[in-house]
Amino acid sequence: TPVLECRQICKSFGGVPVLNNVDFILEKGEIHALVGQNGAGKSTLMKIINGVYNRDSGDILIEGEEQVYKSAQEARKAGISMVFQDFSLVPTLTVAQNIFLARELSGGRVVLDDRRMEEITQKLLDSIGIDISIHPRENVENLSVGSKQLVEIAKALSTDSKILIFDEPTASLSQAEISSLFSVIQNLKKKGISIIYISHYLKDIFKLCDSVTVLRDGVNVLSQPISETSLEKVIDAMVGKKVGNRIS
Ligand code: ADP
Ligand code: MG
Ligand code: MG
């Protein structure tokens, strides 16, 4: 059973169709790239999977179970988290306080003193193999963009996420931060966490990902293991040329 299955997802905004019967399968423990030109519907599909938008029709299954969640909080409880650049963190709180805030919001009551929260946070940060040091007691507003993103990842893990969604995560990261992010993503995969990775950088995708799905004008036009496709095939699917023996 795939960890996530989207069946025939449809979504319109103001009568304009943005997703048209999209099927999407995420296998457990894979890093699955989602690509497509600007406006193809990538973020909309992820926001539906993440509970931020309601779908007009179609089904979402997690580990074979149909999901009816209606908010990001409910999706988080079902095991899905989206890693935002930094705007879901509260800048004036510490790293540890932000992580425990997420836990509380996802339903776990937490009554712990700061020192205990900081210890647990440090363990969580260590467990994702971060090579940059982030102090649990640091205020989030003092961190670099890359470090904030790593805190976001730790926050997602603190609520036992099975599926993590990264939407264009390398924008505004330094080269060193990008390398660090990629090694963290590889570590998450080793832990059995399944990842959806949206990016315009196809070369990164061919290095990092196991599978790729191409959306074009709200339609899934290609879903394949990376090992069975090529850069050229992906680009052709994005712009609408022949893909294999299927005209799309
Ligand atoms: P991508 O992430 O692939 O660039 P999006 O999912 O952001 O694409 O957008 C797909 C289409 O849906 C675009 O035409 C965009 O303008 C439209 N769209 C996205 N969100 C909304 C919204 N909240 N209201 C109206 N239109 C939207
Ligand atoms: Mg866009
Ligand atoms: Mg987008």
Automatic annotation (TrEMBL):
Origin superkingdom: Bacteria
Domain ABC transporter: 4-242
Compartments reported by the entry: Cell membrane
Protein name (Swiss-Prot/TrEMBL): Galactose/methyl galactoside import ATP-binding protein MglA
Gene of this entry: mglA_6
